[in-house]
Records
---
Amino acid sequence: MSTYESRLKGCEQVADGTFAFHFEKPAGFHFKPGQAVDLVLPDPAPASAHYAARHTFSLVSAPFQDELVIATRMRDSPFKRVLKSLSVAAIVRLEGPFGSLTLHGDRARPAVLIAGGIGVTPFVSMLRQAAREQLPQRILLLYANRRPEDAAFLAELTQLEQRYKYFHLIATMTQVVKSASPWDGSTGQIDENMVRRACSEYAAPVYYVAGPPGMVESMRNVLSDLGVNDDAIRSEEFFGY
Ligand SMILES: Cc1cc2nc3c(=O)[nH]c(=O)nc-3n(C[C@H](O)[C@H](O)[C@H](O)COP(=O)(O)OP(=O)(O)OC[C@H]3O[C@@H](n4cnc5c(N)ncnc54)[C@H](O)[C@@H]3O)c2cc1C
């Protein structure tokens, strides 16, 4: 694994309590959509006993873009406090890229991406790159959030569906009653029924799952109950967000 120095270019809010951080792309940094990096922050002063300076993030930017972007919910942890306090041009270390949650090469075989919350990040990277290349591969994204306000990159994904004919998006909200925004799309958790209905016209897809650990586990069970072979399910566990 390689180590790179990079500078923070800026950050922006992409959903309620959720920020994207933009970094310069170091020379020679190459990655595949869906891969992740370890972000290593400068040590805070004074050093805190519970502060781990390193955290893994999927890259939300796509390889064709000239910057590296990560996105995360800004929960109150020492790491996130330091991340949020970084000034523009602060120097960080990036280690990677790594991870095998990357789109399979057989374009005739569809991909079904199942995302919970900010776990959507690796899929945004895949979809940006696939749309850019107009990849002739059917891709379905099932994307669950509590409320529309929590759904990072939803507007971009909706637009992407318009200009990339192989891509279909199903966004669902699980706590829409707590939302101040109107929502006339799908509601309720992604469960066996939703997966069966949504995937009925996709022949032998490869499934990719990213989200809270409980959701990843429950989706693996749902897919297994639907008779999907383990070889056709890809996910990675990111704990501690
Ligand atoms: C491959 C991968 C990449 C990731 N990349 C990142 C990253 O780049 N940045 C980052 O911050 N985090 C990342 N994560 C971590 C991740 O998604 C966190 O666990 C997430 O932050 C959880 O909080 P949330 O607020 O987004 O989800 P929540 O709002 O808690 O949940 C999102 C949705 O999932 C649904 N859900 C929850 N549990 C279940 C269940 N058992 N069955 C069905 N639906 C359920 C909820 O109802 C909700 O609609 C990644 C995880 C994986 C596996």
---
Amino acid sequence: MKGKGSINPKITLHMENEKTLIHDFDLNLICDYFGRLERQGPGSPESTIRALSFIDNFSNELNIADFACGTGGQTMTLAQNTKGTITGLDLSPDFIKKFNTNAAKLGLQNRVKGIVGSMDNLPFQNEEFDVIWSEGAIANIGFEKGLNYWKGFLKKDGYIAVTYESWFTDERPNEIEKFWVNAVPEIGTIGHNISIMQKAGYSFVAAFTLSEKCWTDTFFIPQKAIQKAFLEKNAGNKAAEAFVEYMKYEAELYSKYKQYYGYVFYIGKKI
Ligand SMILES: C[S@@+](CC[C@H](N)C(=O)[O-])C[C@H]1O[C@@H](n2cnc3c(N)ncnc32)[C@H](O)[C@@H]1O
């Protein structure tokens, strides 16, 4: 989920095919769209559990943070596969409301709590967490900046696990290069990103690419099911129409160029 303005002023939505710039999607519109979905970005329970398997002591009572948790798709999977407490943090009050409702529905409210906040200005103590998790969101503050800033909130030997947009090849067609450099200016190859993680003071634990299903089955296909209702609710709203077109365009690009890029899970251990 990427949007200009309230979510990340650095991101400009640019429909390369129609040469249209889409300005000023407000947070309410984006949250209305993505709040209808279980997840707000590519991912799956399987990939969350796979990443968790690289964390030595995950069956202990850990203190876990999930930054930019959205409505908590991955957080609930984490909670169901660990014993400790999880604090989810997201900029969107609407998402956090849904997050806490979801936790309560699953009987997890005593261990899982969502709070509103920004991941570049965290309300936590130094070295508070055993594990910091973040799926599909670190680009909003920058991969390097996020890894460096968040490290202060991790205990020594604590783990970080993030998914991040990454190139799978050294070169790629212009259309997809422009689209992703526009959305995530820092986007790099997997090797480059691992090196950033190591320079930030983590030892490298694992990296794996998210499967195509993480994009199609849990992200693009569920969107098709909600677009009609979203457009009906926002009838006559040009920004809403343009936003749906943008999301369709992102799905088309993925099907055309998926061999060149994707999300990668990066797991590191604080030294
Ligand atoms: C692509 S969604 C990912 C949500 C969820 N982790 C998932 O994978 O389904 C990105 C999330 O980042 C949140 N976000 C963007 N900028 C943020 C910031 N500065 N601090 C906290 N959350 C932020 C958005 O509200 C949104 O929920």
---
Amino acid sequence: MIQLKEIKKTYFMGKQQIEVLKGIDLEVNKGEMIAIMGRSGSGKSTLLNILAGLDKPDHGIYLYQQETIHEKTLNDLAEFRRKRIGFILQNYPLIDSKNVFDNVALPLKYSNIPKKEMTDKVTTMLSTLGIEYVQSRSVDMLSGGEAQRVAIARALIQQPELILADEPTGSLDEESETEILALCKQLNDEGKTLIIVTHNPHVAEICHKKYKIHDGKLIMMPH
Ligand SMILES: Nc1ncnc2c1ncn2[C@@H]1O[C@H](COP(=O)(O)OP(=O)(O)O)[C@@H](O)[C@H]1O
Ligand SMILES: [Mg+2]
């Protein structure tokens, strides 16, 4: 499904040059769930952003189902992301002025689907995640675990094939963390492909493969 070859990324800060990714190779098969670990600042988010099409590599090849992603324009990347990718972040960026339903429905607004179908999709997604009871609540009234599930609902509403998660349990208490992990497992059992950046050994344990970014390279870890 995914092939990365010799991916490199350097950031420039004034005169300073930070070589973050120094030649990353990775293959991910459809239906796999993999963990990416590594110290803070090692380049995990940089790699995930490249996979999501939010950032472009300076060098190397990114193939997604035979499509050459590294050659796409920013416009094409935005479309690629919208159609194929569900992106889950640590700090669940929800829109405070909108309620839960509207936050989850947001990605569907671009696709011009009928209102009834939109409502059905959102309510189904909320019940799948066990949070139908918060549907009309304001998002600032939610617990951390609920807010993260709302953010996940929004990331999944378009049925993406690939789910990228950047420290999805990073700011959750233990109970919410367990719920989110069960959810990741469930999504994977349903055939979704997941790439999860994490510090959390529990997350890494439920993944099929574990990698670590070290000194700009991706190393496979024993399982
Ligand atoms: N947009 C940017 N501009 C300059 N430096 C950046 C940018 N994004 C990340 N970096 C730097 O690149 C390195 C890797 O960052 P990041 O991928 O966020 O690491 P991680 O997610 O593993 O903590 C860090 O040193 C960070 O400061
Ligand atoms: Mg990060």
---
Amino acid sequence: MPELSSKSSGSESVYDLLVCGGGIFGVSVAYEAAKRGLKVCLVEKNDFGAATSANSLKTIHGGLRYLQCFDVKYSFISAMARRDWLRFSPELVRPLRCVIPTTRKLGKSRLMVGGGLAFYNLLTSWRNRDMPAEALIPRAGLRSLNAFTECAENLDNHGVTGAALWYDAQAVNTERLLITLLMQARQAGADVRNYCEVEAVRKDPSQGSFLCQLNEVTRGGIRTQIRASYFADCSARGQFSQSHFGASEPVSYVQAVNVVVAKALVKNAVGLSMKDESGASRLMFMSPWRKGFCLIGTWYFDTDRTTVSPSTLKDIVAQVNSAFDVPKIVPEDIVHVHVGHLPADQAKLRHSGADASLLKHARIQSLEAHDPRLAGAYRIVGTKWTLARYEASIFLNRLAKDHGLSIGPTTFNQRRAEVAQIRALEGLRGLGLSERQLAYIKQYFLAAGEKILALCEQEPDLLEAVPGEVDCIRGLVRYAIEFEAVCSLEDLIVRRMPFGNAQSPKNETLRYCAQVLFRHLGQPLTDEDLMVEQEKLRNFYLKTKPF
Ligand SMILES: Cc1cc2nc3c(=O)[nH]c(=O)nc-3n(C[C@H](O)[C@H](O)[C@H](O)COP(=O)(O)OP(=O)(O)OC[C@H]3O[C@@H](n4cnc5c(N)ncnc54)[C@H](O)[C@@H]3O)c2cc1C
């Protein structure tokens, strides 16, 4: 462990809370802590939200699935979390109609499933109170066989007796949702840094605070030291505390994979029984996503790799096709592979396989139990994107209780404050933007409206469309580069701009973005540079090469 000096350098920054990891859990903790009055520093070693959080199936679960294992508490919590996200950003989170087939098997029969749906309706009867019209969640219920066969053409409906219909929600763009939360944390006073690694943390007994060494990768590896009264390890699966403090209870993990197909295969989300080579079947979900795409997943593997082999992709294609009477996709239809890692129970992983070993609930642990000198340090192991804001509120309540802190009320499930940026949209309309361009800004960049308006008023050229993207004005690219901590073309294309979120954008769009970014970074852009960037992006989307 690098040496950390207890002597204050005078210029050392001091915080209430250091959050290690800028995935959805770390960002949610930073937002909640900043809004509740703590001085927070959030540190992410790569780009914000670029790890597992960028690879989810985008479902904001309404909790029905927890009822399958009679977990009523989490079914309720998940429905609250769905309401919270729909309130936080009705632009980026939409109700998602979901269907699964009923069959003659007892567990999937109309009687059992119908009973479950009726109970779910009762349990979540409050779900639409004070909700905006676009976020209303209809009742769940049983439907006829047609409701299943209408989900997609040529579905194999052998043995299907009807359909169960309910509503989850879908995050249209999880990356923009995470960045929106992050920018609001920053507005509330949080210091947020990407490409900055927490290298070492040690308790300084003389002052009772944590001394933390950070390595600022983008500033040539400059090492800085900060102090924080409390430390939250949100590095996914608690990997930081495991390697630095040797924290007890190691958490294993499994690789989780989705594929994005550039075909509108289904009309709504549908759970389909897919068969693997051995003939064993599993329920997989196919969701319509954006215009013309379909998200399919999730497959679990017992490996720590961040790539998938071409043969695994071929197997995945065969499994998808097994749910239809005629083959629907070929490997070339896959435009993006999502790969992430999820926490798993070590013993179950050994005996029951990857699927069965996934942790069901998040863990929030004080490291004091492991080492009394670590009082004030916690690790947060998250399991679902959906529950990140809920778990963040639970963590802050616990921190306040454990240390007698007086902090503000939670933001979880609170109504969204009036967004001043709506007025900015009117300003942009006055500058002559089309309704589609305004709708694009409203959906993806609403919280940044005022800054975008100011940029466009200063430089009217920014009102022009990005080459190849008629609905996206140049001001959005400029805003992202100037205000959203973009350090590479991948950050910009994939996690800030909606047009690169599903697949690589058109060449002219890529070239334009590269030119603006390189100019901003003070670097010349040659054709060779552009080819290198294109190749990097290709590897990024298809995840078939190590990165
Ligand atoms: C294929 C797949 C499908 C999924 N589908 C869904 C779904 O539909 N709905 C749902 O609710 N959930 C879903 N999930 C689960 C969800 O994505 C995860 O639970 C969630 O993203 C985990 O977030 P996290 O912040 O804990 O982890 P991460 O996103 O991995 O963030 C941890 C961050 O910590 C950083 N870090 C690590 N060490 C350091 C250090 N020393 N210093 C600084 N930073 C550090 C890492 O770089 C990383 O960015 C899915 C997951 C996968 C993989």
